[in-house]
Amino acid sequence: MSTKSGGLIRPVAIAGTGKYLPEKVLTNEDLQRMVDTSDEWITERTGIKRRRIAAEHEATSDLAVRAALDALENAGVAAADLDLIIVATVTPDMAFPATACFVQKAIGAPKATCFDVSAACAGFLYGMELARQFIASGAAQKALVIGADKLSGIIDWTDRNTCVLFGDGAGAAVLQPATEDSSEILSAYSGSNGNLDEILNVPGGGSRLPLTAENLGAKLNTMKMAGREVYRHAVQTMMSAAREAIDRAGLTPDDISCFIPHQANLRIIETIAQKLQVSMDRFFVNLTEYGNTSAAAVAIALDEAQRSGRVKRGDHILMVVFGGGLTWASSVVRW
Ligand code: UT7
């Protein structure tokens, strides 16, 4: 159920990162006026205070393009030089073409092979590992990986169990072969468990339950989640994925200066910190501001961690993610 990777031919670097958050802010106080909830409940149970919501006219690729341009500038790489664009999303602009193709068109990357990855909140690290393998094998030189989701479009805004948790956004990274003084991706790990598909999904809108008037009436086009069960699996799988990536990099948790976990719930992150016996100040947390932005979350966090100086050249960082599928992934990078 999980992949092992290692023994690749050439080392790969993260050359730059970027992000985009839509302007509109939805606060816990706003949500109090929409459903039977309170700022106190949301803050205590999740740590979330605010989230960003995309404008009606903004599609996922619009968010992705803004993050992509930010990452390309940060990396000093021209869009025209990209060989590969991967977008991780569960909210594509349309069934096809891939959202990555819309990004290609918007940024001008005619050489790039473009496709999407569907691994829910774990998608960005799935995409990063694919890009790493393309580059490590010599099949590509420069790759753009984007995690982007407009979850506000698949949320049931009358369901307090889910609507308080999520937000919209995009994060991106540019990958290329490592050099002596660049960063280097040291390890990667991923896994899935399709037996647990039902605890977190959007049942309608695909070939199984098409969007008929009846299915729309039953809101089958919106996210369904068994929160407590998801919580339990999130803690377990992120814990073991974190350990696995650290192990594969030949390191121990003490060697990691910055832990960048999926931004779903502060309590999940605190439990993982406790179990790894790592103090919370080594964990990067921004869910207070953005909620859970699905595939974008860890990418946005990586960008903010490196631009704010939380991550410095030579530091070891660990990214670990978890999402519907179930899916999970982790990676250690020497920055
Ligand atoms: O990206 C991965 C996807 N998702 C996650 O990682 C989410 C994982 N799960 C969680 O983060 C937590 O399970 C939640 C935040 C979703 C819920 O927290 P919880 O502590 O597990 O609460 P609960 O589901 O056990 O519900 C406790 C109570 C229930 O009331 P009763 O049955 O005890 O009377 C809920 O109905 O809290 C109630 N509740 C709320 N109350 C006020 C649920 N949502 C809300 C709400 N406001 N928004």
Chain-wise SSE layout:
Elements: E1 2-4, E2 12-20, E3 24-27, H1 28-32, H2 39-46, E4 50-53, H3 60-75, E5 84-88, H4 99-107, E6 113-117, H5 123-136, E7 143-149, H6 160-163, E8 169-177, E9 184-192, E10 200-201, H7 213-217, E11 224-225, H8 227-248, E12 258-261, H9 266-276, H10 287-290, H11 297-307, E13 316-323, E14 327-334
Parallel strand pairs: 5-6, 5-7, 12-13
Antiparallel strand pairs: 1-9, 2-8, 3-4, 7-8, 9-14, 10-11, 13-14
Helix pairs in contact: 3-4, 8-9
The structure holds oxa(dethia)-CoA (UT7).
Oxa(dethia)-CoA binds next to helix 2, helix 6, helix 8 and strand 13.
Provide the β-strand percentage band: 15-25%
* Individual helix count: 11
Corresponding CATH architecture of the largest domain: 3-Layer(aba) Sandwich
Return residue spans where pLDDT drops below 50 for at least 5 consecutive residues.
none
CATH domain fold name of the largest domain: Peroxisomal Thiolase, Chain A, domain 1
CATH class of the largest domain: Alpha Beta
User: Within the largest sheet, what's the order of strands?
Assistant: 1-9-14-13-12
Strand pairing plus helix content: what structural class? alpha+beta
Count of spatially separate domains: 2
For the termini, the CA-CA separation is 29 Å
Mean pLDDT: 96
In CATH, the homologous superfamily of the largest domain goes by the name Thiolase/Chalcone synthase
The helix-strand sequence is: EEEHHEHEHEHEHEEEHEHEHHHEE
How would the global form be characterised? globular
Radius of gyration: 19 Å
Q: Give the number of DSSP strands.
A: 14
Q: What summary fits the major beta sheet? A: 5 strands, mixed
What is the helix fraction of residues, given as a range?
25-40%
The bound ligands are:
oxa(dethia)-CoA
